[in-house]
Amino acid sequence: MLNIRVLLPLALLILAFPARSESPGCGELVDLAAEVRAMRDHDPASGVDRGREFLAQAGEDCPTGEMLLHSAIASNLHILGRSEAAVEAVDAALSLIGETDDPVQSAAVRRTAGVIYWEVGAHDRALEQYLAALEASRAAGDVAGAARAAGNIGNLHNSMGNWEEARDYHRQALSGFEEIGWQEGVAGTLVNLGALSARIAETLEQAGETSEANAEHEANLEYNRRALDIFEEIGNPRGIAYAADNIARALIHLGRVEQALEFQRRSLELRREVGDTSGIVNSLLTGAEAMLGLDRPGSALEMLDEAESIVPENNRGLLVEVLGLRTDAHERMGDFESAFRVQRRLISLNDAQAAEDLAARVEQLQQTFRAEQLEQELALQRARAEVSEQRARRQQLISTASIVSVLLLLLVLGLLYSRYRLGRRVSHTLDRAARTDPLTGLSNRRDMTEHVDRAILRRNEDNEPASLIMADIDSFKRINDTLGHQVGDQVLVHVAELIGKQVRGVDVTARWGGEEFLILLPGTREDGARCVSENLRRVIGESPPQINGRSLSLTLTFGVTEIEPGANFNDLVKRVDDAMYAGKARGKNRVVSAGEVVA
């Protein structure tokens, strides 16, 4: 019989060196990746840790499992706001796509990559992944995957302001998810449709179309209420938080602020529990907007302080929203110095974002053109193959061959016309940029010259009246010399915005020179133009810009002339310019008509 004193150390030695568990099989690795991905909705931090643990246990004979684990880790990192780490993880997943033969799983990884690339501003890479995912899902007959990709592309169009395209892709996604009965996908798409309604409402509000904007806010509210019911039914806290926050924003726009705060608080609490950093920032922004609606700017600033401290790196869009609300809060508290400092940061961020957006838009147009060209070439090849097959089988039927030839000709013409329309869309975008003053957003000299030439033609042929106004900012050189050109630019933008709010939709306003503005008033006689000028002079005098916490008094001098039959462009501009300078000579801050100068 063995001595117990010998057995005890032996047992301890065995326990100290436990047997190493075997690496999980490929099927098990795929299941583990799905488990890690699901953790992004309730515990993304633990999802990252578990994903890396499983990855360390994986063997080298399952590229599909490794690819899905990298993608799942990236998805959790994205929720946590760790953008750089998320990009590294999804890049690792994409590098394994060539080693797997599962198109459905590959498409899922590409969709995740598209979301992350778009978040960090790599719009060209995001679009490339979305299109590849959509093509792969459709080829594999994967309804769910195609619906997800369609939803991603819908969000992309929404962010670019392509409302109809966005709505079409989201409806494709909703139809696909309803077909397969995936409730989480249905709810997510309802949230996306609500976001689209919110963006459309914002545009309508800026255009002054209040009733139409409220209808879109009500649609946003209904979409998200339906989504909230589904998320609560399936127990998805992240989805509940998103829907509740969207409901709160819609209620704020509809003037039901106290009710909005109930949903905002629920959203914020859930996002804190889940650890959704970007979501926490969004909920804080909603709360700050509600506090401003209740005229509590101090409470709004407290929320904005927290939001700014946790905005994920590289997420410039969220930071812009924080700074915009912060400026509003400081102004309401009368702290114009702080408001001006924040506004300067905001202008700097917007300038950088505008440059990036322009580059991304150009790249997106090029990518779209290449994708459509490839699709057209593939369609043409399929048509040619079909014609060849018909000829081989039915060489004796000349009539049938003729019909096929005609169909092919029509297809080619259709493809050529499609390419022609695409070229026209690109040309229209570039032409519009060439006709706009980059600082004020008004028409430039080229665009105004064409409008005036058309007004002269209508005057000569149809006797339709029209008038011109030349407006010049008084003592503008002194503003530039004493306060600097940056303040001068702010003054120009301020004046341009005030003029835009006072003139009609049919009127055309251009920045004519450094501080000169030329306004064309179709259907208006000289007396009417004088009334418009007097109103602009009064409004601008009563609405000084706020510079460095103080009001900067502004006056403008106006020259007015009516377009007479037989007039030419150069004479008209000289007449209205002379009238404006006559006003300068008479003491500035006044309206002088060309008839007075002649007299």
Describe what this molecule looks like in 3D.
Keywords: Coiled coil, Membrane, Signal, Transmembrane, Transmembrane helix. This is diguanylate cyclase. Residues 464-596 form the GGDEF domain. InterPro entries: Diguanylate_Cyclase, GGDEF_dom, Nucleotide_cyclase, Rev_trsase/Diguanyl_cyclase, TPR-like_helical_dom_sf, TPR_rpt. The protein is mostly helical. The chain has a domain at 445-598: Reverse transcriptase/Diguanylate cyclase domain (Alpha-Beta Plaits, 2-Layer Sandwich). The protein is built from 24 helices and seven strands. It has helices at residues 4-16, 26-38, 44-57, 63-79, 83-94, 103-119, 123-140, 143-159, 163-180, 183-206, 210-234, 237-253, 257-274, 277-293, 297-310, 316-332, 336-393, 398-434, 445-462, 476-483, 485-502, 526-542, 569-585, 594-598, and strands spanning 466-473, 508-511, 516-522, 546-547, 550-551, 556-562, 591-593. It has a five-stranded mixed β-sheet, with helices on both faces. A two-stranded antiparallel ribbon has the order 4-5. A hairpin with a 4-residue loop joins strand 2 and strand 3 (516-522). Helix 12 runs parallel beside helix 14 (277-293). The radius of gyration is 32 Å and the shape is globular. It starts with a helix and ends with a helix. The relative contact order is 0.04. Mean pLDDT is 85; it is low at 1-21.
